[in-house]
Design brief:
Helices cover about 25% and strands about 20% of the residues. With about 300 residues, the chain is α+β, with helices and mostly antiparallel strands. The protein has a single domain, classed as q2cbj1_9rhob like domain (Jelly Rolls). The strands form four sheets. The chain has a six-stranded antiparallel sheet. Strands 7-6-9 form a three-stranded antiparallel sheet, with no helix packed on it. The protein has a two-stranded antiparallel ribbon with strand order 4-11. Helix 3 runs antiparallel to helix 4. The two termini are about 35 Å apart. About 40% of the residues are buried. The structure holds 2-oxoglutaric acid. 2-oxoglutaric acid binds next to strand 3, strand 9 and strand 10.
Length: about 300
């Protein structure tokens, strides 16, 4: 979708979203998707025959990586054309571009064989952007999700709350350390959530989009041996600063910038502010290259 003017804020996160949808002449399916995402912080898409076929191709490409108790494999897109194609499916790209008003690009993938059983969190604690909230996740069901297989859960409307980071979790007078996430963030964030979680009982070939600040996680697996094959792809949007919130302080203008990969091109996307490339520390660039090499040659 060509943008005459890039959105200053994600449209889906503003109260001007309805006049925006009118102005761009959105059709019924687009309206439903964007209004669901605006209201709930999540929205479900059917991926059609192409998406359904790609789910099988992803499983065929990636099942072999789940050896030795591996439950989660990062960045299989570097070795699987099917993972790249599913993450770059035109319907996803078009819907995200419409909802956010900037061009999206996938930057990371995670494959799961079984439920993640992850504690509730919002992705904004792990990756964020400036302007804020130009980030989202897409959860692809690679098989029908059974209720006892540890479905993904989410809290409807929780994205409307202010972003809750390590500072809000109580790590105020020092830089966060390894272990602080489990020790501080997980219990403090759980206390913030006042609503009942919803389960994502998706069918193979459906995808759930979550916004940067919506609370989500994985429920407990209640049947031994139950699989719950899924792919999570994280997306950023063009022309932003990309940063790691745990080691940044946006209020003070301090960012630990990232150099995210671009699954579409196989390259990277340089962080920008107001259209200008921002300087990156050499170690950030080195880390991105090292990570790419590591993921391309073996599974870690
Ligand atoms: O798939 C799940 O159970 C949760 C995944 C998740 O929370 C994440 O990737 O951020």
């Amino acid at each position: 979708m060509p943008f005459k003017k890039k959105a200053a804020k994600p449209w889906v996160e503003t109260e001007d979203v309805l006049p925006y949808l009118d102005a761009v002449g959105a059709d019924e399916a687009q309206r439903r998707f964007v209004t669901d995402l605006h209201r709930d912080g999540v929205a479900i898409l059917d991926l059609g025959p192409e998406g359904l076929a790609l789910c099988d191709a992803v499983v065929a490409d990636t099942d072999r990586y789940f050896t030795g108790g591996n439950r989660r494999v990062q960045d299989t897109w570097r070795r699987s054309a099917a993972v790249r194609s599913l993450s770059n499916l035109p319907v996803i790209e078009k819907m995200l571009a419409l909802a956010y008003g900037r061009r999206p690009f996938p930057f990371q993938t995670l494959n799961f064989l079984v439920g993640s059983e992850q504690a509730a969190h919002a992705d904004a604690v792990h990756f964020h952007s400036e302007p804020q909230r130009f980030m989202c996740g897409v959860w692809f069901a690679l098989e029908d999700v059974q209720p006892d297989a540890g479905p993904l859960f989410y809290h409807l409307g929780s994205h409307k709350r202010p972003v809750f980071g390590m500072r809000e979790a109580g790590v105020v007078d020092r830089a966060p350390e390894l272990g602080d996430y489990d020790r501080f963030y997980v219990p403090a964030f759980a206390k913030e959530l006042k609503t009942q979680p919803h389960l994502a009982l998706l069918k193979k070939g459906q995808a759930l989009v979550w916004t940067a600040n919506v609370a989500h996680g994985g429920t407990a697996i209640r049947r031994e041996g139950a699989t719950r094959r899924s792919l999570v792809t994280h997306y950023y949007f063009e022309d932003c600063l990309y940063y790691t919130p745990m080691y940044s302080s946006p209020e003070e203008g301090r960012f630990q910038l990232r150099l995210p990969a671009n699954l579409k091109t196989g390259g990277w996307v340089w962080p920008r502010r107001a259209g200008k490339r921002m300087p990156l520390e050499p170690r950030t660039v080195a880390r991105a290259f090292k990570e790419a090499l590591k993921r391309a040659v073996y599974v870690g």
